[in-house]
Prior knowledge:
15% of the residues lie in helices and 39% in strands. With 149 residues, the chain is mainly beta. It has a single domain (25-148), classed as Sandwich (Immunoglobulin-like). The strands form two sheets. Strands 2, 4, 5, 6, 8 and 9 form a six-stranded mixed β-sheet that branches. Strands 1-3-7 form a three-stranded antiparallel β-sheet, with no helix packed on it. β4 (58-59), α2 and β5 form a beta-alpha-beta unit.
Amino acid sequence: xxxxxxxxxxxxxxxxxxxxxxxxxxxxxxxxxxxxxxxKATLTGSNVTLNIQISNFVITAESMDMTSxxxxxxxxxxxxxxxxxxxxxxxxxxxxxxxxxxxxxxHDDTSFTWQNVPPGTxxxxxxLVNNDMTPFSPAVYQTITVTVK
Length: 149
């Protein structure tokens, strides 16, 4: 009985951590977590730097620019990173994960800085995408809200 309770307690704890976004990716699935800033943080200055942690994901060398991406086949767990500000994350399978100009960037590093962010509340997101710029299925992303002063 004691072993059963420990097993159930462990399963409940894992479920809580996953739903809270503390575990990125499950098993061999790609995952992404925004490590800084914290959700609901208040920031000073107009440059907002996001830092992320990725798991089970490899950034492909060809994904560094649009020209070299042409004709690259999708491969499980590989692709590149899209960063978004103040727009919903595009998650439609088969459609490129792009939004209006100046609301997204393709940047293949685990840190990205949005420059000249005006004061106010902003939604910031990061998404892992396939080599052809389409979202994974299911989509792999995280969104936080920050206030810039």
